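Input/output pair, single chain:
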Amino acid sequence: MNFLQKMKGNGQSPPAVGMIEILWSWIGSFLGIAAVSLIHYKILNQTDLAMIIGSFGASAVLIYGAIRSPLAQPRNLIGGHILSAIVGVTAFQLFSGEPWLAASIAVSTSIALMHLTKTLHPPGGATALIAVIGSDGIHNLGYLYVLIPVALGASIMLLIALIVNNIPKTRRYPEFWI
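Output:
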C-alpha cells in the first residue's frame, strides 16, 4: 500500500449511539465539568489557584462518552494528566524564553512518557501545552499546577465517572484500573 492510499481509510463510519447512551454521557459530563467549575468559580475565585483547564473538556468526552476506550480508564486519566502537567511545567521553566520550543517539547515529551508508562490520555497533551501557553496565573502556580488544578480536578471527574457510569445497567466503568 502506498503512502496516499493509506489516507483513504476503510470507508466505514462509526456505529450510531443510542439516545440513552447519549443521555448518560450528557449527565456525566455535565456533573463532572460542573463540579470542577463550581470549585473554580465559587471557592477558588478569590485566590491565585485555578481548578478548570481546557483539557478537562476533552477528558469529559472520553470518561463520560467513550467509557470503554483504553484512553478513558482511570490509570490513563490520572496518570496521563499528572505526567503531562509535570512535563509541561518543566518545559516552561526551562524554555520559557522560546515558547515555540517549550510547547513542542512539552507535548511531544508528554506523549512519549504516556506511551512508556501506559497512561496515554490525549487530553494530557493539552494539559502539558496549557502549562506552557497558559496565563501568568497558570505560570505562577509552578509545580502546584500538577496538584491543583490537574490532579485534583481529574480525580473529581473520575469520582463522578465512577458513580454516573455505573448507574445504568448497560454501562460499566472502568474496564481496568492498572
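The chain has seven helices and no strands. The CA atoms of residues 40 and 46 lie 9 Å apart.
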